[in-house]
Structures are given as structure tokens and as C-alpha cells.
Amino acid sequence: MENILFEQNEKIAILTLNRPEKLNSFNTEMAIQLQNYLDKCNTDNNISCVIIKAAGKAFCAGQDLQEAIGENAPAIDSIVRNSYNPIIIKITKMSKPVIAMVNGVAAGAGANIAFACDIVIAAQSSSFIQAFSKIGLVPDSGGTFFLPRMIGAKALPLMLLGDRLSASDADKMNLIWKCVEDENLEVEVMKVASKLSSHSATGLRLTKELVNKTWSNTLEEQLQVEEKYQKIAGDSDEYNEAVNAFLNK
Ligand code: LHQ
Known about the structure:
The mean pLDDT is 97. The chain has helices at residues 28-43, 65-69, 76-93, 109-116, 143-151, 155-161, 167-172, 185-198, 201-213, 219-234, 237-247; strands at 4-9, 12-17, 49-54, 98-102, 105-107, 119-123, 127-129, 164-166, 178-180. The protein has eleven helices and nine strands. The protein has two domains: 4-197, 2-enoyl-CoA Hydratase, Chain A, domain 1 (Alpha-Beta Complex); 201-247, Lyase 2-enoyl-coa Hydratase, Chain  A, domain 2, CATH 1.10.12. Helices cover 49% and strands 16% of the residues. The strands form two sheets. It has a six-stranded mixed beta sheet, with helices on both faces. A three-stranded mixed beta sheet has the order 5-7-8. Helix 1 runs parallel beside helix 3 (76-93) and helix 9 (201-213) runs antiparallel to helix 10 (219-234).
């Protein structure tokens, strides 16, 4: 059985984490498959936005702990280096928006992969757990980068305590874009994806890049990049067509 399913609905790519019996926890094979599909989505011009969703009752329980602790287990740092670090880089560097559709518990690396996505939409019944501290590990998959920047004083306690955070609390804390009724999750996600698909691909790509640069830039540097990217966006056919359409009603 494929660990990752790929489908395309018009210009929307849908990647499904597909080890439901293991709560979609990642073994090496699944991590490499996800990396390959992220590469495909990045380079395929017929794809304008990517959804990462999950089969079964959970979003993702992080690393498959059976694989990590087995007799022939890969070294723990090599799992982080080869499985998770590339996934986080590929999501954040993806030239199009990535939406996480969180349908159930997202734990450990599973939570932080969701938080690395550009738009997180979670079902009311779903939850997030920084499970690492419970098993004597440190947060990985970008958690120590994204969480302090996104939720400040709430980040470290969440990681130290490993408490379950409900989707509605995550929403109140501005850690995710939206928490929706379970039965509306798929429809909401597809609405957002369709809207993104109708926008200029160049504009979306440059906006994502700009916002990612803000972590390390000074105000002056950021203003310069805005100026440069606005020129690129303004030179695009999409800009001219959209403004003409607006002016001509
Ligand atoms: C699992 C897992 C799992 C295998 C549920 N593995 N089978 C990086 C580098 C290297 C090493 C380590 O990790 C990392 C990054 C990380 O992600 S560290 C964090 C790893 N993840 C966790 O510690 C979470 C472990 N899972 C849980 O705490 C619970 O399963 C949660 C809270 C996610 C869900 O609880 P329940 O809904 O009560 O489900 P369950 O515990 O009954 O699990 C259902 C099945 O899934 C069960 O198998 P079984 O054969 O009994 O039905 C679990 O053993 C299996 N499973 N997580 N990570």
C-alpha cells in the first residue's frame, strides 16, 4: 500500500498521509515518499496549491517509534536529518501555498509538519501535542523555530509539558488559520484551495517568499525586497490582466 497518496483536482494537489493503522506515523519510506511528492508539486506548473491531509482518525503521530527504537534502527540524528528536515524545508520553500488539513491528533513531528504549512485548517475535534518531552526527546521538525515566533510565551511551556492542545485553543492562540466543525473540514479546505488557485501564481509565490524572509531581515532589507518583488509581480501578465479587468468592470 502506498504510504502517501497523490491526487490532483484541477490545479490543486492533494497528498494524503496513508498509514492509518499507525496513526500515519512516519517511517523512513513514508518520509521519502512525501519528500518526492513535495518536489513534484513544486516543479509542476499545473499545480497551484498543495493540500496535506490524512487517512483515518489521526492526522499524524510523528515518528514511527517502532522503527526508531528497533534493533536495526537508523541513528536518531540521521532520522531527523534525512526524514524531517527535508520535509520542513520543502514545505517552506515550496513555490506555492501548502495547506494542512488536520482531521485528528497531530503529535510530535506530525504537529510541527502541520505548523510548517502556510495555512492550517483543523477540525474542531482535532488536537496538537508536542509529544517529544514525554519520551525524553527535544522538539524537531522546526518546532523550536516556528512556535516561539508564532505564539511567544506559550511555546516553551507547550514543549516542556507536552500537553494536548485542542484545535479551538490553537485557533485562539493564532497558531493556526482556522478551526472548523468536523463535517465542514473538507469543504472549507477545498474552498480555500480553490480561491488560492484563482490568484496569480507569481503573486502567491513572491508573497510566501517575502513573508518567510521577514524572520531574518531588518526593516530596511525587507522594504528593499518588497520593492524588488513588487517590480517582478507588476511585470507579470497576471497583474496587467487583473487590473484591466478591474478597471473595465
Ligand atoms: C504508533 C505511534 C507512533 C508507532 C500511535 N509510532 N505507532 C524524530 C527522530 C527520531 C525518533 C523519534 O522521533 C522523532 C520525532 C517525533 O515525532 S517524536 C514523537 C513521536 N510520537 C509520539 O510520541 C506520539 C505517540 N503516540 C501517542 O502518544 C498516541 O498514540 C496519540 C496521542 C498520538 C494518539 O492516542 P490514541 O488516539 O489513544 O491512539 P493509540 O495510542 O491507541 O494508537 C493507535 C495505534 O497507533 C496503536 O497501535 P495498536 O497496534 O495498539 O493499535 C499505537 O501503538 C500506534 N501508534 N503512535 N508514533
